[in-house]
């Protein structure tokens, strides 16, 4: 009797856990729901599932290293589901939604230094929360090393579309010939992109908080 009760408790406990694939995803995307929507050929629904967990899904969905595949239990039964290819197919067969409604603007501005993926994602999340973001970048179009990726990996039109979306969300471009970090005015915060190591020289790694990424300069965060 006791053994039967233990098995019942174990079964209920396991059912409350996330699927292996979703647990392995850093952003906890509902992989099973995504695959189910694709199975019904509901590409827009599948895109919505991606967008709930992934900021700028057209970018990240194409560049994701899909750790969910390594965790897929079907890998022991003939091969893991190729989520990375399914994500790309979904994005190619669906249309981006309109920009999200902007919440009431928050006081102050945030300066972002950088033009790579982490800076673009940071700009998206801050703008989505109502902050005014000033994105300092070089060149006509942010993207950094993303611009050098092959067209079959990341089409230029996708990068341009992501940048247009950010501007429609209120991100303000600040083009510069060279990125040079300056302490933000009092009361402002700043973020230094992870893809721009030359900007990190004012901050020694041991003085960057590993949890918040705040540097030794109050209000300045390093990617």
Please work out how many helical segments DSSP would assign.
9
Whole-Å distance between the termini? Answer: 55 Å
Helix content: 25-40%
Structural class computed from helices and strand pairing:
alpha/beta
| SSE sequence, one letter per element | HHHHHHHEHEHEEE
Low-confidence stretches: none
Total E-strand runs: 5
Task: State the major sheet.
Answer: 5 strands, parallel
Percent strand equals 5-15%
Provide the spatial order of strands within the biggest beta sheet.
3-2-1-4-5
Give the averaged pLDDT, no decimals.
86
Shape: globular
Overview features:
alpha/beta, 9 helices, 5 strands
Please outline the helices and strands.
Blueprint: H1 2-15, H2 20-24, H3 31-39, H4 43-53, H5 57-63, H6 68-71, H7 83-92, E1 109-113, H8 117-128, E2 132-138, H9 156-168, E3 172-176, E4 189-192, E5 220-222
Parallel strand pairs: 1-2, 1-4, 2-3, 4-5
Any overview of this molecule?
With 223 residues, the protein is α/β, with parallel strands linked by helices. The protein is built from nine helices and five strands; from the N terminus they run H-H-H-H-H-H-H-E-H-E-H-E-E-E. The chain has helices spanning 2-15, 20-24, 31-39, 43-53, 57-63, 68-71, 83-92, 117-128, 156-168, and strands at residues 109-113, 132-138, 172-176, 189-192, 220-222. A five-stranded parallel sheet has the order 3-2-1-4-5, with helices on one face. The protein is globular.
